[in-house]
Amino acid sequence: MTKHLPRLAAAALLLSTAAACDSQRSATESAAPLSTPTNSAAAVSYQKELSRGDYSFAVQTVGTGSQRQLRWRAERLGRELAAMTDNIEGTVLDAQVSNLNNDDFPELLVFVADAGSGSYGRLVGYEFLSRGRRPLSLPTLEGPAAEGYLGHDSFRVEGRRLIRSFPIYRPDDPNSTPSGGTRTIVYEMPKKEGLITMVEHQDS
User: Fold this and answer.
1) CATH numbers and ranges of domains, the chain
2) Averaged in consecutive runs of 10 residues, what is the pLDDT profile of the chain (204 residues)?
3) Which keywords belong to this entry (predicted)?
């Protein structure tokens, strides 16, 4: 019996090595690019590719419920600068590439409507600098600009300005029927501060 022990040990070692190789190969084959989620292509609920100068961006959400996965990737001249995956509650309304502060570095702006009856709008944004990136967000609505606000935002970029619009609710308005008109808020991003700031708002 003792003469067969080396052979048995060798066979066990070969089986262990083969199993490890199969496991590694399976993990590699299951990897998928941004444009093809590992679960199903049908699970992609938002997808957009954008470019500005030497920069290109891909934005995608996966999932169809209130909980979704936001993925984005940034490249310059075909070389990846950064990529991120984050969980969000809500849906992506739109994604834009801008240069609000008129420098050499673009901003990726992803506009999100939170889950719920109000669909409150917010920004997931980044400015891509020569070294790294800087997160961007909208300042909190307060004062007269926040009066009658119950969500349902829309966003657009016009030149070096970010425009936000939403319906104005009077105290007795149901969620489905705002009657106070529309408020438009204008944001800019001064080069020195590097922050998005509100510069004016107007009701119509």
Assistant:
1) 44-203 (2.40.128.460)
2) 42 40 31 46 87 97 93 96 95 97 95 92 95 94 96 97 98 95 97 90 97
3) Signal
